[in-house]
Amino acid sequence: MNSSEDSAQWTVTRLAFGDFELDLLRRQLLDANGAVVDLPPRHFDALTYFVEHPGELLDKDRLLQALWPGQVVEENSLNKLVSALRKALADDGEGRRYLLTVPRRGFRFVGDVRPVPAAEIPLAPAIDLPRSDLPAWHRRTWLAGGTAAAVAVGAGLWAWRSLTKVGPAEAGTTLAVLPFKPLAGAARDEVLELGMADSLITRLSAARGVIVRPVGAVSRYLRREVDPIRAAQELGVTWVLEGTVQQQGERVRVTARLLDVSSGSAAWSGSFDETVTHVFDAQEAISRRVAEVLMPRLGERDQGALSANGTRNAEAYRLYLEARYHSLLFTADAYRRAVALYEQAIAADPRYAYAYAGLADAYRRALFTSNTAPRETFEKIRTAAQRAVDLDPRYSDGLANLGWVAYLFDWDWPVAERTMRLALELNPSSVDAHYGIAHVFLTAGRYAEALSSFSRARGVEPHSLIANTFEGGILAMSGRVEEGLARIRLALQINPGFWIAHLFLGNVLFNIGQTDTALVSLRQAVQLSGDSAWASGPYGYALAQAGQIGPAREVLRGMQARGRNGYISLAMLALVHTGLDESEAALAALEQAYEARDIRLPFLRIDHRWEALRGHARFAALAGRLRLDPAQPTTKSTF
After folding, report:
1. Distance between CA atoms of 309 and 283, rounded to whole angstroms?
2. H or E element at residue 62
């Protein structure tokens, strides 16, 4: 693909068919005269979905799931929606030009879809991203400026790239950038050593044509002396980049070498001696030389990605590297430290997109490692992630965090899915976006797609504790229990202290009747997590269901005591009440969890432990407000 073709793929924001144009940026349907055709938000989403799949037979079950995810909707609602679309398109006469009915099967969009050249599209001064059927307290996301409209147009960009089937140029090319090592005899600077690798990974991941292992996958080699070819084989890559780095005063000396794993030979090597303020030039030069070897035909968009550095401010960059270093420690204290460092980096350079994305990520991850009140945190996450996207719409981490905001806090499943898809288009190596879209699939009960996404995440980061654990959980939920247990136990072999793996292991064992062993694993999860409600809730529930009422009530009292001194997951309190057969208390706690924006609520549909509550009108009403199907799941949750 030449650069002009490549550029066109990234400027399509309007699609034409027949006498109409679908403006994905402004979310408008325009007629032949340029006038706006009035379409409610759900109708616009439906038309976009049809245009995304021209010529395909879309059966009614698929359309119902796509347009009303997680909801129980009668087929008549779909027929009414299609009828309304036909009326809007003047397609309700004898001859169908756009939407054909395939009797007893579904519908087919037969319009000739084509992109509108970017030069013909006027820029929008501001974009309002509407969300259909949201509670009144949901804030709308405003994206100021044409370049910041990446989230609003995300579905359209993904759709058009799907239609034209654009993919990585070299799908089999994989690369690991190992932490740089100190020069012989020099003092260690782990922040700089890992930071150099992290910066290069960020640049190279944004260029299509190669799958780059994330920094979490290579950080295990920070303190290990290992042959680079052996490390590459462990990581399952075809190429590996190694190097050395040393800072003396105001100068930084860097060497780098790109190795072909199959032959062990060096395809390129180079050395640089720069001032601290010019270390970015060395990173850009290394990225370009690596790209010349692995991706010889780069489009303009990818050339720009290699040049991106986020900042030219040496102080901000150093603070950012320290924050990233702490973020990889996965503890509550480390995330608090990371937040402070990211904020300092932003103070040093208020236009540092990477620091804003990192800040959003640290705030979000802290919700899972500490008893932090989500309602007090989510606006900070949204603001930081939105600022990252405004500053650099190509940076996938900012978009992934906006996707998580839509999923965890807005409970807007379609927007979450579309935003995660765009993040993956920008960076197919984004483990965070793979996790995010997998969670969206889980919430909708789309287990096969969730398993596929978690498997892709593990493919990018084979030794990831989270990827192995979650993939194991989905395997167990899908009936492949032994495979699931093996995957979870692999995570524990990598890190025996990983409490989430102990939690999943306990849940799976409890589901298959190995109660005593399950309670041991769940108790370990509680201890290793520092009494996290995420572990205490399932433990208390399991105790109650096993007939150990006294210990279960002790767990409940402990959680309630911690809740008096700070936030405790109300959904997890409800879970223990449910185990104790205290339905009224459980329902009250779940309703309070809704008001608190508890991050456990997206799992409400798939968690079989709420079985005793599903017949209650209050539970059905809560599920309705979350736009989830309240029906009993067909499998036992491991989450």
Report:
1. 9
2. helix 60-67
Which amino acid type is present at position 356?
Y
Q: 85, 96, 114, 116: which is closest to 17 by C-alpha?
A: 114
Q: And the tokens for 508? A: 């799976």
304 touches 324 (CB < 8 A): no
Which phi and psi angles does 39 have, rounded to 5°?
Answer: -135, 125
Helix axes 374-391, 583-596, angle to 10 degrees: 30
Kindly report, residue by residue over 74-110, the tens digit of the pLDDT.
888 888 999 999 999 988 665 678 888 888 888 888 8
CA dist list (Å): 612 to 582, 586, 615: 10, 10, 7
Measured in whole angstroms, the distance separating CA 309 from the mean position of its chain's CA atoms is 22
Taking the chain, what is the end-to-end CA distance rounded to the nearest angstrom? 43
- Report whether 480 contacts 504 (CB < 8 A): no
> Residue 626 is which amino acid?
L
The per-residue pLDDT for 33 is: 86
Question: Smallest Cα–Cα separation from 477: which of 606, 292, 311?
Answer: 606
Q: Which two tokens stand for residue 628?
A: 């989830």
207: nearest Cα among 111, 294, 149, 97: 294
Model confidence band, residue 355 (pLDDT cutoffs 50, 70, 90): very high
What's the per-residue H, E or C state across 278-326?
HHHHHHHHHHHHHHHHHCCCCCHHHHHHHHCCCCCCHHHHHHHHHHHHH
Q: What angle do CA 343, 346, 352 make, to 5 degrees?
A: 140
Q: How confident is the model at residue 251 (pLDDT cuts 50, 70, 90)?
A: confident
d(CA 283, CA 202): 11
C-beta of residue 592 within 8 angstroms of C-beta of residue 586: no
Phi then psi dihedrals of residue 464, to 5 deg: -65, 125
- Closest residue by Cα to residue 532 from 355, 300, 330: 330
Domains and CATH numbers, the chain: 10-128 (1.10.10.10), 174-309 (3.40.50.10070)
| Nearest residue to 429 (alpha-carbon basis) of 168, 228, 157 | 168
The H-assigned helical ranges of 89-176 are 154-164
- The strand pair at 211-212 and 174-177 is best described as parallel
- Tens of pLDDT along 177-219? 998 888 765 667 787 788 788 878 877 776 666 788 888 788 8
What is the per-residue pLDDT for 587?
Answer: 97
Ramachandran region, residue 90 (left: φ > 0; alpha: ψ -120 to 50; beta: rest) = left
Q: Report pLDDT for 438.
A: 93
Residue 129's pLDDT band (cuts 50, 70, 90): very low
User: Exposed, middle or buried by CB within 10 Å (0-12, 13-18, 19+), for 66?
Assistant: middle
CA distances from 633 to 26, 31, 196, 338, 501 (A): 37, 44, 46, 38, 23
Task: Report in angstroms the alpha-carbon separations of 365 from 102, 182, 374, 378, 473.
Answer: 47, 31, 11, 11, 20
Backbone dihedral angles phi then psi of residue 479, each to the nearest 5 degrees: 95, -5
| Token code pair at residue 298 | 């780069």
Burial zone of 634 (CB within 10 Å; 0-12 exposed, 13-18 middle, 19+ buried): exposed
Q: How far apart are CA 470 and CA 490, in angstroms?
A: 12
Reduce the DSSP state of residue 465 to 3 states and report it: helix
Total number of residues shown for the chain: 639
433-456 tens-digit pLDDT: 999 999 999 898 888 898 889 888
CA distance 233 to 554: 49
